[in-house]
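Recap from last week: sequence in, structure out.
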Amino acid sequence: MKELHLKPSNVFIVGVGRSGTKFLQSILCGHPELNISTETQFLSSALHNGFIKTANKIGDLKNDKNLITLVDKMFDNQIFGAFWKRKILKNKEEILQKFKDSDREFKTLFRIIIEEDMRQNNKTIAGEKTPSHLYHVDTLLKWFPQAKIIQIIRDPKKVLASEMHKGLKPDHPLKKGSRLYNLSLLVYVLINWNNSIKLDKKYKKKYPENYTSVRYEDLLQDHENTIREICNFLNIEFNANMLNPPVRGSSFSKVKNENKQEKKLQLPKFYISTINLSLGKKLKQYNYQT
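Predicted structure tokens:
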């Protein structure tokens, strides 16, 4: 049995969007101890009104009136993120009171939020997945030094294909399916995937005990062994419920269908060539075809 004191205080999932973060979230939530909250956009978002951005616009949270305004926005879907849209938290007055009784620092508010979701699901280890928190790993580990962070990495050609097949990005100025729209997605994927690889190397060197990465393809092709490796990293016992979790709203619906669905994500040759030319060296380092 794993020793309790070796278990992480929290678990966070990060990565480029459409890389399988929701799939990994569902797998981890299949464990009886782990609760991975959906996207709070707490430390994000540059383009949208994430949690901290919203709070800063409101003003000093030491002021009760401002704190009440923030909590109102949390429960009225006025903060960007699936967590707020789905109205995950149930007890508004209890959350407000916990906020009031705290030091009102962002670190503390984040902990209160994900731990409340954890309690609602009768779990013991709180976590969260916001893909763009990839750029905030230093902050997460400063706030939660005993946390573990997993980045999921996927072939950028499949990332782009998934982006093209999904619904229109929020507030995107271009028409979905147009050449300019697809080119904007190509640039987005090239920049973010390249950054994700640079950060993967940086974090592995800087936080060898707290950070790891997993390839999405390994979760598909060597499902159980990859999950067992993740459990070893997290210092938790493997649980068979993690093998075939429900996957709601992600790229795929069931684990057994994922390889079949993955093959359907095809790109025109121009996009494949551009990605291979731009990212060829890094693709080879992560065992992706060029």
